[in-house]
């Protein structure tokens, strides 16, 4: 069943073209609703390479778009956005990393210089990020205007070698699932091609029914 919210999720791997697709989508949605676009940026230019990436994104965006830098308080940015604006948030996975760092800092947990990360600590950090994700979804679905989230499928790569890496992978996947459940549409971008996966999705009982029907099981002979 489709959600009635105006939340859209665009996901995919690195360099898949998901940001470019989301930007074009936001532009078309804004034109259709005769509204502006608020771009919520979650990246921080902590080194030259990231600064260059941010610069490329900025040059690609229309000058008329309003940009809000919100590496940690994306929830506040959504709540403060103009009601009719299309809000494009890029990206959720960077936001999750920032949330993890902020929650670890608040809890006095050192995430640098050590691979050790107790299971109990991981659970606390994951629960706090889940609370943030819930608030993010609530802020999005309560908006009148469209909200577009860009995120990454980080779990499609190799298994991270450290507990922190595995925690991040797991938390990012859980956040993506929460966003997708609340979204009206979810687009998977692969090699620059977008597919609306939520339109193709089915529940386990529906999948089982189709498989059984295809094999003829349960038919009287």
From TrEMBL:
Chain's role: Catalyzes ATP-dependent phosphorylation of adenosylcobinamide and addition of GMP to adenosylcobinamide phosphate.
EC numbers: 2.7.1.156, 2.7.7.62
Protein name, entry field: Adenosylcobinamide kinase
Recorded metabolic or biological pathway in which this protein acts: Cofactor biosynthesis; adenosylcobalamin biosynthesis; adenosylcobalamin from cob(II)yrinate a,c-diamide: step 5/7; Cofactor biosynthesis; adenosylcobalamin biosynthesis; adenosylcobalamin from cob(II)yrinate a,c-diamide: step 6/7
Keyword Transit peptide among UniProt keywords: no
Reaction catalysed by this enzyme: adenosylcob(III)inamide + GTP = adenosylcob(III)inamide phosphate + GDP + H(+); adenosylcob(III)inamide phosphate + GTP + H(+) = adenosylcob(III)inamide-GDP + diphosphate; adenosylcob(III)inamide + ATP = adenosylcob(III)inamide phosphate + ADP + H(+)
Binding-site positions, GTP: 12-19, 41-43, 58-61, 69, 90
Entry similarity comment: Belongs to the CobU/CobP family.
Residue numbers annotated as active site: 57
NCBIfam families according to UniProt: PRK05800.1
Organism name: Calditerricola satsumensis
